[in-house]
Amino acid sequence: MSNALLIQPYAMPTITASQTDAGFAASNLSSDYMGLTWQGTGTSLTVLVDLGSDKAVDSVVLLGTFGASTAWDWLVKIATAAQGSSFGPSTTAVVSSQMLAGSVLTSASLGKAFATFGAITGRYVQITITPPSSATIRIARVVIGDGFTLATNFIFGAGFGVRPLGSLDFSARGVLLRRSGGKLRSLSISFPAASQSEVETSIQPVLEVLGNDSPLCIVTDPDVDAQRINRIYFGFMVGSLGTVWARLGGFTADFNMVCID
Amino acid sequence: MKGHLIQIDARDGAGAATRYLASVDDPLLCHLNGQQWVPAIAALPSLRYDFFGGDFNGAITTPGASFSVAIEGISTFTALRWSGARVRIYTGNVGDAWGSFTLRFDGRVNAEPTLNAGIARFDSGPDDSWLDKPLLTLFAGTGGVEGPTDLTGAPKPVALGSCRFAPGVLIDATNNVYCVSAYAVEGITAAHDRVVALGSSTGNYADLAALLAAALPAGGWGTCKALGLVRLGAPADGLVSFHVSGDNAGAGGYARRPGAMIRRLASIAGGTVNTANLAALDTARPYDLALVMIAQTTAREMIQSLADSVCAVAGITLTGTLFVKPLGYTASSLTLKSDGTALPPVASVEVRPVAAPFWRLATEAEPTWVVHDPANVATEYNLRGLYSASRVYRLDDVVVSADGSAWVYINTTSAAGNAPPTWPTTSNSHWTTVNPATSPDFTNVTGGTKPSDNATVGARVGINFLDQAGAAIATDAAIKNSAITINAAGTLSGAGAGSVTIGGLGYLGVLNATANPDLALNLNTNFYDWPTGSIFPTGIINNQNQTGSNTTRIAGTTSQYAMRVVATGGTDFSTYFDIGSTVASRFNASQFVMLEVDIFLEAGVLTSAGFILSVRTPASSQVSSHRVSFDTDKDTSGAVPGAGVVGREYTFRKMVQVGSGAELWGRCFIQTSSAPNGSNATGRTIVWRRIAVTAGDDTDVKTFGQDIGATLGARSGTNIFRTDGTTILTQAEIRTLEGVASSVTGQAITATNPDFAGINGVTRPENNADVTSTIEGAAEVVVLATSAGVPMGGQLPKTSGFKLWRNGVDVTTSATWSLTVLTGTFTATIGGATGVLNLDVSGGNFTSGTIRLTSVYLGLTRTKSIVVTRSDAQATNSGGSNPVSVSGAINGAVSSTTMVAVSAELTVAVGAVGTVTLAAPYEFTITDTTSGPRHVHAQWYEWNGSAYVALGTETQSTSAARWIPSDLYHDSGFGGKDQTVTGKTANSTGHKYTLYGRCTAGTITRFFSGTATAVGT
Questions:
Q1: pLDDT score at B921
Q2: How many C-beta atoms lie closer than 10 Å to residue B93's C-beta?
């Protein structure tokens, strides 16, 4: 088991796709509405993300994929601004593997793709999906970032739950009064031994940037596993954000999330 | 899980900017129907209805929908225009296909959304704006069905259902075209003018052109149902209205029930309806309604009114569809149970305030769409005054004729030129009587000028002459005159100047012969009263052999009938009638009566024919007998007819004096042939036209005196008297009658007629000599001229009047005047009926000469010779220191108050003294016969080298001329004018002077005479 990976998604000003089905804009890949998706159909579907400037990239996550199976592959290429977005034949893929992060899908039957690699500076990220044959794939969100991993993993006893949005009540005569609603996954993990350096260089800046209104992606165990899809969380931090200098040389950092993936 | 989708058709500066919203952040929902539905719905839509509130406030309520949206999911939110944007709300289960989603709401955003904390709240309602738009289309004013210019912008009427007395809009005043509905109509069943039906329609025409081209009779009407038009055949008399089976242009055809009418209104307004719902309304409320809209309104108002009228509630669904639901009590369709044993679950139960119950009374009425004020409502009879041939009359129009009779129009076809019949005819195909001809009734009239009842005053052609009972005495044709008047002398006359006698008019009453000699003593003088079927005229009785086979009623000349008697030779034929009777006297003793008989000899001879008046006592003892014998008595021409001439009319007037006795009466015999009075051997046919015995008056006595043995031969100074001492003829009348002068006192009676046949001797005048006629006037007309013989200025043309006198009477203008120029060179004319002579130059010359005037009066000619003298001025003498005297005639005439020359021009030389002494004694006369003095003024004029100028002052004549009628004499006037002129330059060639004169007043011509002198020293 590897330590949890925390990824702050970069803003993605421009996203284009090699093919887009009607009603499924590529720009939806940067939308935090998971209901708004991009959809393409073909044997090789390419999504090009323009980060706006060269940035260090070491993680690419695809959320809310629908239609792909473990037989699908994907390639990720990164080019600097100087290299441009043409991605010639000589451009080397930083990722070339099975697309789905695991074989077990989410309860909503959605999949996810995940890749992490040594940080590469670039502006353009090209994601190519290659199904075995012409097929349709739908993706809700692309997360690209330069993640970080703390030296000491979160302690066991982390909370994995659900925030139900429906309601249930009873009348005075015991008659069920119910309103169905959505169920959002929730995650509550705590890093009890973060160093001061980790707080100052990684945790605190992320908290300051994201707050509780910008999404965060946490992969609790980046290692390959059939359940890895369900170990990838994408949502918003809730509650008090911050770290606690709990002891000499040690900080406690708690992350409580409501996920929308 | 339920999902909601909201589509808002907002707009931005570039146009449509539709935004799609979802309630669940799920691709299964967010990408339905090929759209991207942003899961930004913050609060699910809240839909609500607000139906009938129980207050019948007449408003169609509309539902609403509100929802909230996180604006983060709506790009360019603040740049969009939301108000009025169409909103559609769909619901379905997340994961279901688009086709499974239901449109729950279709409306428009009411206003810009409120925005708070990134959440925008929208309120919206169904799109029912069509309910509030003007419902009626407008006339464009471009002619035809769009009406004239002045109708521009006016709403077109719409009629729905069966409308009685619906109004129309006049869109073509020239052709009388009305628009009763803007769309096609089912029918137009009746047209009314002032609520009077105009009968049946002439027909229906396909379009306006055909309607205009149709030949519609005046009073008729036609339709163009396809365009909702009516055309009248003639201009309307007042407010028009129509019975209209209204609009059938909608999808449902003829709309007459509430649901169908609401459907049609919605169609016109551009709204959508639930057709099945409205059909159900018609089933629930199967009532035929009527609606006419002439003023601008809205579909909301009209539909609500229709719904209210059938106790129904109109509303708009969440999707903007109109529905109307009849109110009623029905079994419940849903039972709510709070114990959870039925769905939907009941959350809570509470009792809410309930308003007081409402109820309403049903009211029924049949509307009429045109309000007719009294002036616009024709009564059963429409009074149209005196009949006019040029006016179009309609059913129930009432007119009066000149005779006061009143008639009502009964023909269903309105028309002009059909006159009412002449009373007493009571009807024809167009008119029937409602009141007979009237007669004047003066019962309530008082005063001295009140005419007698039923008097026919100033009766004109076309009106019979009526007796007091109102019956015709004589028809207009019998009267033969255009008017009858009674003049100051009491004579009844026709306009043709012919006098009319009462008897001539068939008067049958008892007359007072003594008081009025023009009236006959007998009745039926002209046989006017001769009933059809009677052998003889009323009052005539057979005496000898007259029967229906020889006595015939034929058309008369003096009346409508005459008696034609055919007498065979050798037999006497006669009839008789009585004047009075043994118990009723008619004659005074010794009364003069005139026997008047008018006959026509059609065949045979007059011998032995005649008329006898036998005057008798009450015991029928004859006291005198008087006969007019046609063959031996003179007729009115003075000739004795003898046997007579076939084909001639004879009139006899014979004055007789009846015998003495008391209570006399007469029997008159009409003898066509009578052997005792001559031979009856020759047959004859005599038409008896008039037999009258009239009382003789003074005129009759004068005219027929030779027959009455009057005391003629009376001496001068003695009148002719009746036996009672009253005067028959005065002395003057005797002289005139006898044609002799008063100086012939005692002259023999034979002088009655001027006949000098028996007079011999050289002094015997010719027969019919006129010894009194004379032409009066100047014997000489003088024209003053210069010494060179040129008529002086103002002299010509010169007029001179002449008169013709006869027996002291001026008959100038009754005579015919002419003249002949015997000698001289001048132009002379005379007024043919005035006797005024006019002289002028002829070819620039004028010399003395002679004229012969001729006047002709009553065939007698009188002549007079007139001398025309040109009086030249004396030639200039040599002058010198010794007095030089010149003279000239004063002989001019003046006819005005303007000065003109009346003397010759005197040219006198002046010597060293330089003085000219002028003298002008004159006389003057006139020929006029009007009374009064006639003066003149005279004055000397001197020639100054270029014109005559007055010297000194004018002087009036000393004595005036005048006409003395008692002596039939003109008295001359006279005067004189002297003038001394001093300081004149010695001049051997002379100075020129002329006497001028003028009328002092008036224009009666004065003729000057005398000699003027001028002495120069």
A1: 92
A2: 13
